[in-house]
Amino acid sequence: MTQPLRVRSSKPPLPPLPPPQQLIDILVDSYRKQCMVDDEVALLDVLDTAGQEEYSAMREQYMRTGEGFLLVYSITSRESFEEIRTFQQQILRVKDKDVFPMVVVGNKLDLASERKVSVEEGKMLADEFNCSFLETSAKTNTNVEPAFFEVVRAIRNYNREMQGGPTIGGGLSHNGGGMGKMDMADDDAQAGCCSKCVLM
User: pLDDT tens digit string along 170-194?
Assistant: First the structure.
């Protein structure tokens, strides 16, 4: 699964995202949400591809337009975990980059008793990709918002690096938490960045 993010100014209030279960679902869908991440307004354009094979023909288009990616696997499925490396390599190839904003996410934490992929394996893969790692549960809404906030931070840091500026620390790292609110920002809030996030 993957998702793209983008940040821009916005006048009218934006509709809320659907429940977290629908964010990490098997359906390809897109949502838009304005939120606050580290005291900056962020407008998230979220595209959920869920890694489904029938949408593989469109996958490279998602990758071309995405500004950041959530690489999501099920902790109950080793096959989905092993696919993450393929997605990561494909993203870098399509982007023609050595690095790009990504976050590795182990989903279905509510099914920990059926775990097939250890926390340590998820951390090691994220370390290899030089990105953050979280485990989430869309069912219980555990760490779902922090995952989106972390990919926003990754995009912001990447953009600062590309512009030659300093990166901002304090983001999530290996199952950590982070600052951020999914509440709607005030109508008169100043614009932050608009991030196009792809969920794979």
Answer: 444 344 333 333 332 333 333 344 5
Burial of 41 (0-12, 13-18, 19+ CB in 10 A): buried
Collapsed DSSP state (helix, strand, coil) of residue 93: helix
pLDDT at 22: 46
Domain boundaries along the sequence of the chain = 20-158
Give the side-chain half-sphere CA count within 13 A for 89.
6
**Alpha helix (H) residue ranges in the chain:** 20-23, 56-65, 78-95, 119-129, 144-162
Alpha-carbon span 21 to 144, nearest angstrom: 9
CATH code for the part of the protein at 20-158: 3.40.50.300
**Half-sphere exposure at residue 131, Cβ-oriented, CA atoms within 13 angstroms:** 29
Burial of 187 (0-12, 13-18, 19+ CB in 10 A): exposed
User: Dihedral, CA atoms, 168, 118, 124, 196, nearest 10 degrees?
Assistant: -40
> In this structure, are residues 4 and 196 in contact, taking their beta carbons and an 8 Å threshold?
yes
Q: What is the pTM of this model?
A: 0.71
pLDDT digits (tens, 9 = 90+) for 139-162: 999 999 999 999 999 999 999 998
